[in-house]
């Protein structure tokens, strides 16, 4: 799962500033530190525009253990992907608060580890609303701290030994990156 992310980073870094837009940003986030994690967002903004357009990919895996034996009994992999649009309040500044909306596809795969049984994969696509604060540091540094919520997202998975049901979802964005 990391190979596509690394390939995407290499491609994005090879593109020149003028080939995309007046401000092009590639950022990586905290979910890169999770088990089998990947967290990348690429975005662009025309010079002096309030609008920033981008695409987000985040994925991580959780392993669940039996509380009595300590044995791993299931793994759950969650992925969020989709476009993001932000409105920057201070478009001419190096730092700005923003509000945004994203249309994210949320996929969950639950895999049992103690028995031979099939995995269950479910997905849903919903609007996420949120905001945060982003800015530049130095000549090419970028940071973003934001959160998006989707109160209408629902996802249910079930395997032979575990099940999960969740109403509502969130997307935390704590990122650093480069901007051109």
Set down the secondary structure blueprint.
Elements: H1 2-14, H2 17-20, E1 23-29, E2 38-45, E3 51-65, E4 72-88, E5 95-112, E6 120-137, E7 141-158, E8 163-179
Antiparallel strand pairs: 1-2, 1-8, 2-3, 3-4, 4-5, 5-6, 6-7, 7-8
Task: Give me some keywords for this one.
180 residues; mainly beta; Porin; eight-stranded antiparallel beta barrel; 8 strands; 66% strand; elongated
Question: Could you write a compact summary of the structure shown?
Answer:
With 180 residues, the protein is mainly beta. Helix content is 9%, strand content 66%. It has a single domain, classed as Beta Barrel (Porin), CATH 2.40.160.
Give an overview in words.
Strand 6 and strand 7 (141-158) form a beta hairpin. An 8-stranded antiparallel barrel has the order 1-2-3-4-5-6-7-8. With 180 residues, it is mainly beta. The two termini are 27 Å apart. The longest helix is centred in the N-terminal third of the chain and has 13 residues, at 2-14. Residues 15-21 have low confidence and may be disordered. The chain contains 2 helices and 8 strands.
């Amino acid at each position: 799962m990391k190979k596509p992310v690394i390939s995407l980073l290499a491609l994005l870094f090879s593109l020149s500033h003028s080939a995309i837009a007046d401000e092009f940003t590639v950022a990586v986030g905290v979910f890169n530190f999770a088990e089998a994690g990947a967290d990348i967002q690429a975005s662009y903004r025309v010079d002096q525009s309030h609008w920033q357009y981008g695409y987000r990919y985040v994925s991580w895996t959780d392993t669940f253990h039996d509380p009595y034996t300590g044995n791993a009994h299931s793994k759950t992999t969650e992925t969020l992907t989709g476009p993001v649009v932000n409105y920057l309040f201070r478009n001419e500044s190096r730092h700005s608060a923003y509000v945004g909306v994203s249309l994210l596809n949320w996929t969950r795969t639950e895999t049992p580890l103690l028995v031979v049984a099939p995995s269950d994969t479910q997905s849903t696509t919903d609007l996420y609303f949120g905001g945060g604060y982003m800015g530049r540091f130095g000549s090419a540094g970028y940071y973003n701290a934001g959160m998006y919520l989707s109160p209408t997202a629902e996802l249910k998975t079930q395997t032979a030994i575990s099940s999960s049901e969740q109403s509502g979802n969130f997307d935390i964005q704590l990122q650093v990156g480069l901007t051109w």
